[in-house]
Amino acid sequence: MNAKEADATAGRQPRILLAEDDEVSREFLLDALSRLPANVMAVADGATARDELQRQCFDLALLDRGLPSMDAMTIRQSVMSSAGANVKTPMLALSADVDAELRERFIDSGFVDLLAKPITASALRKAVRSILPASNQDWDEEQALAAANGNRDIATRLRQLMLQDLPGQREQLLRSVASAEFSAAHDLLHRMKAACAFCGAVRLAAACSELDDLLRDGTPATDIGAACAEFEQACHAALGDPPQA
């Protein structure tokens, strides 16, 4: 187990460097990544991205191919020659112009992949999740306390109420998805995400957001099935009971 994987296992959220010069694209990508249990740092040019990769340790770098001042390929070459903390950090590139030859060039140079823009939020998160080290952080205590204005008793009570409702909500949601009652599923997921935010249930909140996005996007059933499985796992983790065999 390397240091980054050990940190993730200990509960530290993975760190992502996002480099995108277009403001609209950057805001979209930030919003998509905000649904993950991860800390994201965003920069707008290649030189700054290179400097941050030399200064800090990241679990993933997500780089626009044609950044001003330094493109994604040059950034990677600079990081690799520096022998710094991010030599082994996986990198994903994004480009509006992607063909098989260009994608192969990026992969051959050490990128995990070259993703085509525009990209859906769910597709981006799927690509990122496949790379990031697994995190076992189910709860964010600071978030829960902040929502309760620092009152630990209130935070504890809110969590108890959420956990009382969770088993029934889990079964109701899975039934709604199985019967294609997506409007009911959206309504329930909206309520569950709000409860998770108040209680600091970060893993369950991310699972609810991902499932909600996939249902809205009309995603194939196989991907929805995988999202439902993660939702169930997050529910089991929140409740503290072992998953069903």
Relative strand content:
5-15%
In the CATH scheme, what's the topology name of the largest domain? Rossmann fold
Oligomer state equals single chain
Structure annotation, total helices? 11
Cα distance spanning the termini: 27 Å
Described by strand count, sense and barrel closure, the largest sheet is: 5 strands, parallel
Tally the structural domains.
Answer: 2
What is the second-level CATH architecture of the largest domain? 3-Layer(aba) Sandwich
* Elements, N to C (H/E): HEHEHEHEHEHHHHHH
- What's the CATH class of the largest domain, please? Alpha Beta
The geometry reads as: globular
Order of strands, widest sheet: 2-1-3-4-5
Low-confidence stretches: 5-10
CATH superfamily of the largest domain: Response regulator
Topology, number of strands: 5
- Rg over CA atoms: 19 Å
Mean pLDDT: 89
* Helix residue percentage: 55-70%
Would you tell me the structural class of the helices and strands? Answer: alpha/beta
